[in-house]
Amino acid sequence: MQNEREVSGFYSQIRDYWIALGSKGSAPPTMMLNFGYWPQGVEHLYEAQQSLVRRVVECIAPCPDGALGVEVGCGIGGISINVLQQLPHVRMTGVDISEDQLEIARANAQARGVQDRFHAQQGDSMALPLPSNAFDFGLCIESSFHYDNKPLFFSELFRALRPGSTAVVADITCSRVDGVQFRKGNYFESPATYHQLIRDTGFELVSSEDIGPVVYAPLYQHIQNFNAGQRNRDRIAKYWSLVLNNYRELASEGDMGYYIFTLKKPDAPALNN
Ligand SMILES: C[S@@+](CC[C@H](N)C(=O)[O-])C[C@H]1O[C@@H](n2cnc3c(N)ncnc32)[C@H](O)[C@@H]1O
Asked: At CA 196, angle to CA 191 and CA 199, rounded to 5?
Protein backbone atom coordinates (compact mmCIF):
# COMPACT_ATOMS: atom_id res chain seq x y z
CA MET A 1 0.00 0.00 0.00
CA GLN A 2 1.03 3.56 -0.70
CA ASN A 3 2.66 5.52 2.06
CA GLU A 4 0.81 8.78 2.58
CA ARG A 5 3.73 10.46 4.31
CA GLU A 6 6.10 9.54 1.48
CA VAL A 7 3.78 10.91 -1.24
CA SER A 8 2.96 14.10 0.73
CA GLY A 9 6.65 14.62 1.46
CA PHE A 10 7.55 14.32 -2.23
CA TYR A 11 4.89 16.85 -3.30
CA SER A 12 5.80 19.28 -0.52
CA GLN A 13 9.32 19.36 -1.97
CA ILE A 14 8.44 19.72 -5.65
CA ARG A 15 5.07 21.54 -5.64
CA ASP A 16 6.34 25.14 -5.61
CA TYR A 17 8.79 24.48 -8.44
CA TRP A 18 6.10 22.83 -10.51
CA ILE A 19 3.59 25.65 -9.89
CA ALA A 20 6.22 28.23 -10.92
CA LEU A 21 7.06 26.16 -14.02
CA GLY A 22 3.40 25.97 -15.06
CA SER A 23 2.43 29.57 -14.31
CA LYS A 24 2.57 32.22 -16.98
CA GLY A 25 2.98 35.98 -16.67
CA SER A 26 0.10 37.71 -14.93
CA ALA A 27 -2.32 34.78 -15.37
CA PRO A 28 -3.37 33.14 -12.07
CA PRO A 29 -0.92 30.43 -10.97
CA THR A 30 -1.50 26.97 -12.36
CA MET A 31 -3.57 24.57 -10.26
CA MET A 32 -2.22 21.52 -12.06
CA LEU A 33 0.79 19.33 -11.43
CA ASN A 34 0.99 17.37 -14.66
CA PHE A 35 3.17 17.31 -17.79
CA GLY A 36 0.47 18.71 -20.08
CA TYR A 37 -0.27 18.01 -23.74
CA TRP A 38 1.90 19.94 -26.22
CA PRO A 39 0.41 19.88 -29.72
CA GLN A 40 1.94 22.18 -32.35
CA GLY A 41 1.96 25.83 -31.29
CA VAL A 42 1.95 25.18 -27.52
CA GLU A 43 5.11 26.65 -26.00
CA HIS A 44 4.38 26.93 -22.31
CA LEU A 45 3.38 24.35 -19.69
CA TYR A 46 0.43 26.57 -18.72
CA GLU A 47 -1.13 26.13 -22.18
CA ALA A 48 -0.08 22.48 -22.35
CA GLN A 49 -2.00 21.76 -19.14
CA GLN A 50 -5.04 23.61 -20.48
CA SER A 51 -4.90 21.52 -23.68
CA LEU A 52 -4.67 18.34 -21.63
CA VAL A 53 -7.87 19.23 -19.73
CA ARG A 54 -9.64 20.09 -22.99
CA ARG A 55 -8.62 16.69 -24.40
CA VAL A 56 -9.88 14.95 -21.24
CA VAL A 57 -13.23 16.77 -21.38
CA GLU A 58 -13.61 15.70 -25.04
CA CYS A 59 -13.21 12.09 -23.90
CA ILE A 60 -16.04 12.30 -21.34
CA ALA A 61 -18.43 14.21 -23.63
CA PRO A 62 -21.39 14.28 -23.82
CA CYS A 63 -21.67 14.82 -20.09
CA PRO A 64 -25.29 15.15 -18.92
CA ASP A 65 -26.41 18.06 -16.72
CA GLY A 66 -26.21 17.19 -13.05
CA ALA A 67 -23.56 14.51 -13.61
CA LEU A 68 -21.36 13.58 -10.66
CA GLY A 69 -17.69 12.97 -11.46
CA VAL A 70 -14.81 11.62 -9.44
CA GLU A 71 -11.14 12.46 -9.92
CA VAL A 72 -8.68 10.06 -8.32
CA GLY A 73 -5.34 11.69 -7.45
CA CYS A 74 -6.73 15.21 -7.88
CA GLY A 75 -3.66 16.94 -6.43
CA ILE A 76 -4.19 20.68 -5.95
CA GLY A 77 -7.46 20.50 -7.85
CA GLY A 78 -6.75 21.98 -11.27
CA ILE A 79 -8.21 19.22 -13.45
CA SER A 80 -11.46 19.02 -11.46
CA ILE A 81 -11.76 22.81 -11.23
CA ASN A 82 -11.27 23.23 -14.98
CA VAL A 83 -13.86 20.53 -15.64
CA LEU A 84 -16.28 22.37 -13.32
CA GLN A 85 -15.59 25.64 -15.14
CA GLN A 86 -16.17 24.04 -18.55
CA LEU A 87 -19.23 22.05 -17.45
CA PRO A 88 -21.27 24.32 -15.17
CA HIS A 89 -23.91 21.71 -14.24
CA VAL A 90 -21.47 19.04 -13.11
CA ARG A 91 -20.25 18.25 -9.55
CA MET A 92 -16.91 16.65 -8.74
CA THR A 93 -15.40 14.68 -5.88
CA GLY A 94 -11.61 14.86 -5.81
CA VAL A 95 -9.75 12.13 -3.94
CA ASP A 96 -6.09 12.37 -3.01
CA ILE A 97 -3.90 10.52 -0.55
CA SER A 98 -2.26 13.76 0.56
CA GLU A 99 -4.23 16.05 2.87
CA ASP A 100 -1.72 18.85 2.10
CA GLN A 101 -2.60 18.68 -1.59
CA LEU A 102 -6.33 18.67 -0.78
CA GLU A 103 -6.06 21.75 1.43
CA ILE A 104 -4.66 23.66 -1.55
CA ALA A 105 -7.31 22.12 -3.83
CA ARG A 106 -10.08 23.41 -1.54
CA ALA A 107 -8.54 26.90 -1.52
CA ASN A 108 -8.18 26.81 -5.33
CA ALA A 109 -11.83 25.77 -5.74
CA GLN A 110 -12.86 28.63 -3.45
CA ALA A 111 -10.72 31.12 -5.40
CA ARG A 112 -12.40 30.03 -8.67
CA GLY A 113 -15.91 30.12 -7.14
CA VAL A 114 -16.65 26.40 -7.70
CA GLN A 115 -16.38 25.31 -4.05
CA ASP A 116 -20.09 24.41 -3.87
CA ARG A 117 -19.64 21.83 -6.63
CA PHE A 118 -16.29 20.41 -5.45
CA HIS A 119 -15.83 17.95 -2.62
CA ALA A 120 -12.25 17.06 -1.64
CA GLN A 121 -11.90 13.70 0.09
CA GLN A 122 -8.72 12.23 1.54
CA GLY A 123 -8.20 8.61 0.54
CA ASP A 124 -6.12 6.02 -1.22
CA SER A 125 -6.84 5.18 -4.85
CA MET A 126 -6.49 1.50 -3.98
CA ALA A 127 -9.16 1.63 -1.24
CA LEU A 128 -11.43 4.45 -2.37
CA PRO A 129 -13.53 5.92 0.46
CA LEU A 130 -16.48 6.15 -1.92
CA PRO A 131 -19.83 4.43 -2.37
CA SER A 132 -20.36 1.88 -5.16
CA ASN A 133 -22.12 2.67 -8.46
CA ALA A 134 -22.23 6.35 -7.50
CA PHE A 135 -20.36 8.35 -10.18
CA ASP A 136 -21.27 9.22 -13.77
CA PHE A 137 -17.66 9.63 -14.91
CA GLY A 138 -14.17 9.12 -13.53
CA LEU A 139 -10.81 10.77 -14.11
CA CYS A 140 -7.29 9.88 -13.06
CA ILE A 141 -4.67 12.13 -14.59
CA GLU A 142 -0.98 11.44 -14.04
CA SER A 143 -1.46 9.79 -10.69
CA SER A 144 -1.67 6.04 -11.37
CA PHE A 145 2.10 5.81 -11.93
CA HIS A 146 2.34 6.18 -8.14
CA TYR A 147 0.11 3.17 -7.43
CA ASP A 148 1.89 -0.03 -6.51
CA ASN A 149 -1.26 -2.13 -6.95
CA LYS A 150 -2.93 -1.09 -10.20
CA PRO A 151 -5.39 -4.03 -10.33
CA LEU A 152 -6.80 -2.78 -7.01
CA PHE A 153 -7.01 0.79 -8.33
CA PHE A 154 -8.88 -0.28 -11.47
CA SER A 155 -11.28 -2.46 -9.50
CA GLU A 156 -11.95 0.37 -7.06
CA LEU A 157 -12.60 2.77 -9.94
CA PHE A 158 -14.92 0.21 -11.55
CA ARG A 159 -16.81 -0.25 -8.28
CA ALA A 160 -17.33 3.50 -7.74
CA LEU A 161 -18.67 4.15 -11.28
CA ARG A 162 -22.25 3.65 -12.41
CA PRO A 163 -22.80 1.09 -15.19
CA GLY A 164 -22.51 2.79 -18.59
CA SER A 165 -20.16 5.53 -17.38
CA THR A 166 -16.87 6.65 -18.88
CA ALA A 167 -13.48 7.07 -17.25
CA VAL A 168 -10.28 8.68 -18.50
CA VAL A 169 -6.96 7.50 -17.16
CA ALA A 170 -3.95 9.42 -18.48
CA ASP A 171 -0.42 8.52 -17.49
CA ILE A 172 3.24 7.95 -18.14
CA THR A 173 3.87 4.45 -19.48
CA CYS A 174 7.19 2.65 -19.70
CA SER A 175 8.20 -0.58 -21.39
CA ARG A 176 11.82 -0.55 -20.11
CA VAL A 177 11.67 0.37 -16.45
CA ASP A 178 15.36 -0.47 -15.92
CA GLY A 179 16.14 2.57 -18.11
CA VAL A 180 14.43 4.94 -15.63
CA GLN A 181 17.00 6.76 -13.49
CA PHE A 182 14.80 7.85 -10.55
CA ARG A 183 12.40 5.06 -9.64
CA LYS A 184 11.48 5.70 -6.00
CA GLY A 185 7.68 6.03 -5.65
CA ASN A 186 7.12 5.38 -9.37
CA TYR A 187 5.46 2.16 -10.54
CA PHE A 188 5.49 2.57 -14.32
CA GLU A 189 3.78 -0.01 -16.49
CA SER A 190 3.75 -0.62 -20.23
CA PRO A 191 0.74 0.33 -22.37
CA ALA A 192 0.13 -3.40 -22.95
CA THR A 193 -0.11 -3.99 -19.18
CA TYR A 194 -2.56 -1.08 -18.82
CA HIS A 195 -4.69 -2.52 -21.65
CA GLN A 196 -4.71 -5.93 -19.99
CA LEU A 197 -5.57 -4.51 -16.55
CA ILE A 198 -8.37 -2.38 -17.97
CA ARG A 199 -9.97 -5.38 -19.70
CA ASP A 200 -9.34 -7.79 -16.81
CA THR A 201 -11.24 -5.39 -14.52
CA GLY A 202 -14.28 -5.56 -16.78
CA PHE A 203 -13.96 -2.17 -18.49
CA GLU A 204 -14.31 -1.77 -22.25
CA LEU A 205 -11.30 0.02 -23.72
CA VAL A 206 -12.90 2.74 -25.86
CA SER A 207 -9.65 4.37 -27.00
CA SER A 208 -5.96 4.46 -26.25
CA GLU A 209 -3.86 7.36 -27.52
CA ASP A 210 -0.14 7.96 -27.02
CA ILE A 211 0.60 11.69 -26.77
CA GLY A 212 4.17 10.98 -25.52
CA PRO A 213 5.79 12.19 -28.75
CA VAL A 214 4.33 15.65 -28.02
CA VAL A 215 5.00 15.68 -24.28
CA TYR A 216 8.55 14.84 -23.27
CA ALA A 217 10.72 16.77 -25.75
CA PRO A 218 8.84 20.12 -25.45
CA LEU A 219 8.51 19.78 -21.67
CA TYR A 220 12.24 19.12 -21.36
CA GLN A 221 12.96 22.25 -23.44
CA HIS A 222 10.52 24.27 -21.31
CA ILE A 223 12.32 23.13 -18.13
CA GLN A 224 15.71 24.03 -19.60
CA ASN A 225 14.49 27.54 -20.53
CA PHE A 226 12.83 28.02 -17.16
CA ASN A 227 15.89 26.84 -15.20
CA ALA A 228 18.21 29.07 -17.25
CA GLY A 229 16.18 32.06 -16.06
CA GLN A 230 16.55 31.15 -12.36
CA ARG A 231 19.36 32.90 -10.50
CA ASN A 232 19.69 30.20 -7.85
CA ARG A 233 19.17 26.96 -9.62
CA ASP A 234 18.36 24.60 -6.76
CA ARG A 235 18.45 20.82 -6.48
CA ILE A 236 14.75 20.54 -7.44
CA ALA A 237 15.36 22.37 -10.72
CA LYS A 238 18.33 20.10 -11.45
CA TYR A 239 16.30 17.02 -10.48
CA TRP A 240 13.55 17.82 -13.02
CA SER A 241 16.06 18.61 -15.72
CA LEU A 242 17.64 15.16 -15.21
CA VAL A 243 14.26 13.40 -14.98
CA LEU A 244 12.89 14.93 -18.19
CA ASN A 245 16.15 14.36 -20.04
CA ASN A 246 15.89 10.68 -19.10
CA TYR A 247 12.19 10.53 -20.10
CA ARG A 248 12.69 12.26 -23.45
CA GLU A 249 15.50 9.82 -24.28
CA LEU A 250 13.33 6.84 -23.34
CA ALA A 251 10.46 8.31 -25.37
CA SER A 252 12.69 8.85 -28.41
CA GLU A 253 13.66 5.15 -28.22
CA GLY A 254 9.98 4.17 -28.04
CA ASP A 255 10.27 2.97 -24.42
CA MET A 256 8.22 5.69 -22.75
CA GLY A 257 4.78 6.99 -23.65
CA TYR A 258 2.09 9.21 -22.20
CA TYR A 259 -1.23 7.51 -22.75
CA ILE A 260 -4.79 8.70 -22.55
CA PHE A 261 -7.00 5.65 -22.00
CA THR A 262 -10.77 6.07 -22.31
CA LEU A 263 -12.71 3.30 -20.59
CA LYS A 264 -16.35 2.38 -20.28
CA LYS A 265 -18.02 0.42 -17.52
CA PRO A 266 -20.49 -1.77 -19.41
CA ASP A 267 -24.19 -1.02 -19.12
CA ALA A 268 -26.08 -3.07 -16.57
CA PRO A 269 -27.70 -6.13 -18.18
CA ALA A 270 -31.38 -5.61 -18.99
CA LEU A 271 -33.77 -7.28 -16.53
CA ASN A 272 -35.85 -10.09 -18.04
CA ASN A 273 -39.53 -10.28 -17.27
C1 LIG B 1 1.37 14.35 -10.56
S2 LIG B 1 0.11 14.72 -9.37
C3 LIG B 1 -1.28 14.97 -10.48
C4 LIG B 1 -2.37 15.76 -9.83
C5 LIG B 1 -3.55 16.12 -10.75
N6 LIG B 1 -4.20 14.96 -11.28
C7 LIG B 1 -3.11 17.01 -11.86
O8 LIG B 1 -3.11 16.57 -13.03
O9 LIG B 1 -2.78 18.17 -11.58
C10 LIG B 1 -0.24 13.10 -8.67
C11 LIG B 1 -1.18 13.13 -7.47
O12 LIG B 1 -1.51 11.78 -7.11
C13 LIG B 1 -1.62 11.69 -5.69
N14 LIG B 1 -1.45 10.30 -5.26
C15 LIG B 1 -0.33 9.55 -5.27
N16 LIG B 1 -0.59 8.32 -4.80
C17 LIG B 1 -1.91 8.29 -4.49
C18 LIG B 1 -2.79 7.28 -3.99
N19 LIG B 1 -2.33 6.06 -3.68
N20 LIG B 1 -4.08 7.58 -3.82
C21 LIG B 1 -4.56 8.83 -4.13
N22 LIG B 1 -3.78 9.82 -4.61
C23 LIG B 1 -2.47 9.55 -4.80
C24 LIG B 1 -0.51 12.62 -5.20
O25 LIG B 1 -0.70 13.01 -3.86
C26 LIG B 1 -0.60 13.77 -6.20
O27 LIG B 1 -1.45 14.78 -5.73
From this structure: 125
pLDDT of residue 1: 43
Centre of ligand 1 to C-alpha 70, Å, is: 13
- CB of 75 within 6 A of ligand 1: the answer is yes
Q: Is the CB of 11 under 6 A from ligand 1?
A: yes
Q: What pLDDT does 26 receive? A: 80
Mean pLDDT by runs of 10 across the 273 residues of the chain is: 83 94 89 96 95 95 92 98 94 97 97 97 97 97 97 98 97 96 92 97 97 96 91 84 96 97 91 69
Domains of the chain: 4-215+254-264 (3.40.50.150)
Residue nearest to atom 10 of ligand 1 (CA): 143
For ligand 1, what atom is nearest to the CA of residue 78?
A: 9
CB count in 10 Å sphere of residue 239: 14
pTM of the complete model: 0.95
> Do 258 and 173 meet the contact criterion of CB atoms below 8 Å apart?
yes
DSSP per residue, 17-86:
HHHHHH--TTSPPP---S-----TT--SHHHHHHHHHHHHHHHH-S--TT-EEEEES-TTSHHHHHHHHH
* CB distance 22 to ligand 1 below 6 Å: no
Say if ligand 1 is within 6 A of residue 169 CB.
Answer: no
